[in-house]
Amino acid sequence: PLMFFGTTNLDLCFNVERLPTPGESLMGTLARNPGGKGANQAVAAARLGLRPTFYTRLGDDDAGRLLLQSLRDAGVCADAIEICAGEVSGSALVMVGDDGSNMIVIDPGANLNVTPDMIESAARFIDREAIVVAEMGMPIPALNRLFEMKSDRGFKLIFNPAPVRPGLSAAAWRSVDFVTPNQAEAFELTGVEVEDFESAAGVAAKLLDLGPRAALITLGAQGAYYADATSSFALRAFPVKVVDTTAAGDAFNGAFAASLAQGLPLREAVRKALAVAALCVTRRGAQSAMPTVQAVDEFLKS
Ligand code: ADP
User: Fold this and answer.
1) Beta bridge partners of 135
2) Domains plus CATH for the chain?
3) Among 30, 94, 212, 271, whose Cα sits 20 to 30 Å from the Cα of 158?
């Protein structure tokens, strides 16, 4: 009973010694990696042993076939996925420096054409006990429809507000159970910088004013901060050697949702998400960087 809604992209990923400056040409090595926030999150959950359903739109093209195969191979249920004739699949140009930093440009392609009616139709895959995860790459009217369906259907809603865009309705915000921004997204949503756990507390309070029941802010190498109306806690990130931070947030969100779906208590679910995200940044790529349940168990034991 775990369902993801979101974007799928083919990442054209250049590994470079350092990121270029405007006007500069650098040499690097290219890899074509399946990506897209929603797809990465669904794969992260599937690697942990779940069989999440994923709603996304793909073009009827080579990239779309490769992306669908990658989702299936990971164990994601593709029954809700739409293959769209005459449309191109989303793609992203990703540059990753040797220090693990990245720059990304996205052409959303078929991801851009999700309508509220399509969401309504895909929602037949959601059952009452379901946990639903959505990121912000889908069109806002589609997200509003999905979130507003929650009052009737009673699923649990995790909202990863990435990339931040305006237009989410007040009712939609109020239907969110967990909003999960990173530091940059938390700043865009509240106008206040998240520098450490202390400032995260103030920002989390501002996020709760938007309407969600709880805020879970990720702070990169620092860890994560949780707050709801009555409680809060911070957990430190696991120290690891960073190779590529691409999809760290997706690993975190996918693993957090999967852990809740498996019935882990909140704090344990956040800890598991931190472990999965830590392992993710030690590997190159997006979906290919998501660890298996065995790798996570071993990591947590060591
Ligand atoms: P995003 O990838 O969306 O920018 P963050 O940078 O906040 O989000 O990273 C998400 C999570 O990934 C963090 O909460 C942390 O658990 C993990 N993570 C990111 N960078 C590191 C790091 N250098 N070391 C360990 N864990 C990390």
Assistant:
1) 160
2) 2-7+35-89+110-301 (3.40.1190.20)
3) 94
